[in-house]
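Internal tracking record. Fields below are filled automatically when a chain is submitted to the structure queue. Please do not edit lines marked as system-generated. If the sequence contains nonstandard residues, flag them in the REMARKS field before resubmitting.
Queue: standard
Priority: normal
Entity type: single polypeptide chain
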Amino acid sequence: MSTPWVAIQRNPTSGTGNRASLLKELIHHLKQKGIRPRLFSNRERMQERVLQKSAEDPPLCIVAAGGDGTVQEMINRYPDQRIAILPLGTENLLARYLSIPKSGQFVAEMISQGVTREIDLCQMDERKFILMASIGFDAAVVLDLSLIRKGNISRLSYLNPIWKTLCSYSFEPLHITAVEPGQVRELTGYHAIVVNISAYGLNLNFAPEAQDSDGLLDLILFEKKGLWNMLKYVFRIMRGTHLGSEGVQILQAKEIRIQSAHPVPVQTDGDATGMTPATIRIIPAAGRFIVPCSTRSNDQ
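SYSTEM-GENERATED OUTPUT FOLLOWS
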């Protein structure tokens, strides 16, 4: 019988300082548990290796060593593999949601135990994502940051893109078709948030009732136009009172189509993804993640 192994995809910018020590810690503890680690920086090289080995000697899992962007990349490259997360990025929202700490030893133990949880995924065009999408102002901020980004980012990196977007953003009306269970609804608004898992930066919680395995997307649509209304929405979101506010629509759907007369930015899981028109749909139980024993599992 061959030695069990895992493929570790590290973000190329995660190779120094504390991030490097966490990778070394993960590798050390995997070896102690009789699991052979294979570390890759080049994503194409790793994908080629995994495809070569999958038929006769598949890996126990793919380890996404990075932030939410690295996790998103892994679910797209390896739809048939289980994913484990070693959180190393600026934002590690899915890891936090699944109660996975920044600890190589913890993640090695988690992989050896192999508890698996199935989670709904979202898809826009051919691209899958996990947490949420937004269409409008904050997606414009993410797009602007992506155009100037060099290397690692921090929360301070967003200050200039936020200011630039505040000065230039034109609120384009969004025309939304929501395919709900049993009906199709047409709506109009100026900012839309589509939630699969209720995890967002700055501890904001757009859809507290969102479930990761209900086969539905949660749509929050802000119907009023303009910077002043947007600031009021942000204030209410921070207080957790936005769902009962005037001008806020909440519904659940299996598919959401967004159109606009002029292109509006879209971001998914914190990455600039494209422009409208866009169609987002749910793919039930399509993501398989290795999770801590203490996290509720629905597949072992």
